[in-house]
Amino acid sequence: MYRRKTRIAAVILAIALAVSLLPGAALGATLAQTRAADKLYTLGLLTGYGLDSSGKPIMNLDNIPKRTEAVTMLVRFLGKEQFAKALASTYAAPFTDVPTWAAPYVGYAYFSGLTGGVGNGKFGSGNNIGADHYLTFLLRALGYADNTDFKWNSPWTLTDSLGITSGQYGTGSKFTRGDMALTSLNALYQEYNKSGKTLLKALVDAGAVTMEQVLAAELDDALTVGGALPPAVSRPTPA
Description:
With 239 residues, the protein is mainly alpha-helical. Helices cover 42% and strands 0% of the residues. The protein contains 10 helices and no strands. It has helices spanning 2-20, 31-43, 67-77, 81-86, 103-111, 131-141, 156-162, 177-187, 199-205, 211-216.
């Protein structure tokens, strides 16, 4: 009996070690979230917190994303990262709590009317962001309008119908960097601004992402509208 328990413990330890070695792996992150983060990192759309001892990006997928992280992803999804950096001094947002690295992104988003502050000259850089705000950012990046195409306080109604999400979010839902990675990856497969091209194809055409990065991330199926969605999300059945 003792040997059996020892073998079981050894198997559990081996599985835990294997999971910990996955790129960007986190204790509570699902395999789909970890893979999504890895693909976004390859595309240059998601950065980590440096590299670990083996050279892998530290993604901290269990962390709750901050407002600065969400706005940064929004600007990158709009293909405006280089533009925002080039004009950072021209479009400096009037906030006193924005870290230097995030200033170009917050400035672009503020002057483009994509985000505002939280009052008293603050952006709320260190504030956590939930599913409602992040999904709203994704829908804006895709060309959907607040209060016309969706309601900002229940964006999951639209993202569920599109296949970006699948019913896992609602008011007060926990939302981590792992969730941010997976929903962001799913958004790349969506049609951009009624253009007949996916968001990923639009980013390639804008020069924000290269075809080499797309192929390295194995996302060439996301270049065509109606292509296969990632395994974690199934395309909704038309009504």
